[in-house]
Design brief:
Length: about 600
Amino acid sequence: MSKLSRREFVYMMAVLGAAPVFANSHTRMTDTNKLEDYYKLKPFGNARLMHMTDSHAQLLPVYFREPSVNLGFDSNFGKPPHIVGEKFLDYYGIKGNKRLEYAYSCVNFEKHAKAMGRTGGFAQIKTVVDFLRNNFGKEKTLLLDGGDTWQGSATALYTRGKDMVGAMNLLGVDVAVGHWEFTYKAEEVLENVKMLDAEFLAQNVKVKEDALFEETDIAMQAYDVDEGYAFKPYTIKKLGNARVAIIGQAFPYTTIANPQRFIPDWTFSINDENMQDIVNDIRENEKPDAVIVLSHNGYDTDKKMAEVVTGIDFIMGGHTHDGVPEAYPVKNEDGVTYVCNAGSNGKFLNVLDLDIQNGKVKDFKFTLLPIFSDLIPEEPSMKKYIQDVRAPFMKELTREIATTEETLFRRGNFNGSWDQIICDALTDIKDAQISLSPGFRWGTSVMPGQAITFDDLMTQTAMTYPETYVADRTGQMIKDILEDVADNLFNPDPFYQQGGDMVRTGGISYKINPTAKMGERISEITLTKTGEKIVPSKNYKVAGWSTVGSKSPGEPVWETVEAYLKNVKHIANLKVDTPDIVGIKGNPGII
């Protein structure tokens, strides 16, 4: 383990001296004189599942600020993950535990980041995975990857996801699902899946009937042409004497949230009825000891699926980047399904140990392990792999563009500081009145005093449809866009929440009531420069990027933002355009 300063040592002692025990969590075998004992878990049960998700191609350790706004309403009001800041710490009883405060919340983020450094990193993750696998028994352990792994960095974009396929293989991933994986072309996805050692599952990705009829090349590579499955829907894994079924669930709204044009032969859906049929069939014919769904639905959607589909023991979920330190119980007609999530950017590793007896799960222990990079040595083979895969691009990646005295982050229901820079760049470089930027959840943080490198910029923009545009839009069209995204985010039915956060805006302010009906959430849209209210019939010059329907004509957005940052040179006194939010009194999902 790396040597800690006295200040860092004091921070670590706060964990070792008063580590909380969440519901059904492992007991840590900690020794206050041995910092490396933090990752030792007291053995339990006879089958171990490790789960990571949404790493977004971050091979190296990162800074990542958790959200200060994650609003929940209706049945999700005041329930994880819609609790933030101090309220989150109170809810889980971890106030004063500096390590977990840093991992799980945005409280004292800059102070903790300065003391403890970055989190995640595939070389660190491999050290922990190897230890937990070897400590428990390789033959009784599975490693699951919940998707959004092949996208989110310059090197992933340049290699079309292949750098991450290699990292997954070296890490020893056994089963995987996808979402942003499908933003490469279909033939690239299939090529990567063939290179992947893990089984790539998806019960809810089907081949279009016309593609099957026309016998297109992509359709003919389907896992099951007769049933229309593009990929294997489930697998049975033997863990020691236990048989565990893993069912794959890809992001159900991929072709709405991302371009259909890259994957024209495939359809995506919730497919909850088919999920029930598969669970029933597995239970009846395969006689497994446990049924696990590896999902990229998003946390609230997973909770609803756990309500309407019976026979699932655990849903290991992703997509919404929520680090929830407990397995959340959801009641349904036949019993209880537990929903788990593993955060993002390599910050966490889920460890689920099952006590399987007489053909069923008798008990379990679950721990969401933060990956504190300063405590974990880099595993040599992964360290070398990362160095080698990044080496051809290092001159480009390390190029310094600007500096900042602001914390730059993206994650929350509304604009983050990184989003604001992108919006400001679009309005400035494109000479537009208004800018719109997608509510992506991926993207790492930059700390005050850091240089902003091209590598940092690409964690916010590296994707396969980055092209920019400038177009005239009426005031009514602008309102309609805001209303549509707000309904996607705040729809009371999780099955209609189609991914991402609120569209980021530049040049305007507005009022939003998340609790209002569709079409009535947005009001008082105003140009920030002049204070002029947006007129529905009037045209406005709008700049944006990342169009889903068709390719835009402009340069990639990273070129736009780099040009802006080079002009600005230093980020200070950044004004983040957050809307006036009403109807949220007493909501613990906002600071």
